[in-house]
Amino acid sequence: MDEKIMERLKKLLALSKSPNPHEAALALEKAQRFMAENGLCQDDIDLLDIGETLADSVLSSASAPPEYMGWLLTVITMAMGCKALYARKKVAFVGVSARCEIAAYMYDVLARQLRKQRRDFIRALDKRTLPKNRTAKADAFCEGWVMGVQSRVEAMKISAHEKALIEKFKQKTYTSDEEIKLRQSKKVRGQSDAANKGWKAGREAQLDRGVAGPRAQRGMQGLVIIDELC
Question: What DSSP letter does each residue of 108-128 carry, written as one string?
């Protein structure tokens, strides 16, 4: 739906809830006429609260993002009852607009913390550790970190109707639903110890749910699904 048309319809529907009966009736009449003129239906009204928010932080600079970043998105989308989509190394959250704002904010905050703690973990490793083992242990640390965060987050239950609206919005807005390939971590000695350290660090992650400032609500073509709704 065109943004100007959407905003106009939102205003008319808001006025139709006025405590003034005459004003409410007039606004409802205008809203119905406006919908008829623009070929809108009840589904279009239902979709008014569904939107998208683009996160500031990239998913990964690598062509195949690490699996733990996909896990992090899953934790956040389950907590906020939305869906995460991906393209050009950027992440968009789709669902009820207010919750998507918070989801994008949470992702930006947590992704920065995770990347910093990954770097710190690698620096603390024995200098004799081979590069490939450094990466594997750091991956295990990050996986544990995300699990630590998950242990502090409660999943949000959303209705089947809301899930259907999110799916409808996605189909209308995005042209691709390809699944992205995530890089899995390699097995290495000391992996469990690294994961345990990550879990403890993740338990201490800052999960401030303060509402972020205004974000650009812009569509992106060719996005791919990262996770499924709970």
Answer: HHHHHHHHHHHHHHHHHS-TT
Tokens linked to 124: 């603390």
Question: Which residue from 192, 166, 195 is spatially nearest to 43, judged by alpha carbons?
Answer: 166
CB atoms within 10 A of CB 17: 10
pTM: 0.74
Residue 117 CA: distances (Å) to CA of 126, 161, 208: 16, 39, 18
- Helix 67-80 vs helix 97-124: crossing angle, to nearest 10: 150
User: Which tens digit of pLDDT belongs to each residue from 193-203?
Assistant: 999 999 999 99
Q: How wide is the angle at C-alpha 57 spanned by C-alphas 53 and 61, nearest 5°?
A: 130
- Domain definitions of the chain by residue range: 3-40, 50-225
- Tokens coding 106: 């949470």
What tokens appear for 22 in the block? 């005459």
User: What's the N-to-C CA distance of the chain in angstroms?
Assistant: 27
* Cβ contact 227:83 at 8 Å: yes
| DSSP state for residue 66 in the 8-state scheme | B
Instruction: Give how far the C-alpha of residue 188 lies from the chain's centroid of Cα atoms, to the nearest Å.
Output: 31
Report helix, strand and coil shares of the chain as percent, to nearest 5: 55, 10, 35
* 70-101 tens-digit pLDDT: 999 999 999 999 999 876 567 899 998 889 99
